[in-house]
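ok so i was messing around last nite and threw this chain in just to see what happens. nothing serious, just curious
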Amino acid sequence: MPNNKIYDLEADDAESRDDFKHKIRESQELNLIFNAIVNSTKRNSVNRTPVAGLNKRSL
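result:
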């Protein structure tokens, strides 16, 4: 009987490890997507932000 409990715990352990790995992978993917969005908005906002008092006509 005790052996069955040990095996059950090991199975639960393996399942929770797999679940944990999956969650880590998922969060890494979300982090990459988030960083890509942040970087693209940074790039766009830098390109589109006018410098105060400067435009093509004044140059």
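not much to say yet. The mean pLDDT is 73.
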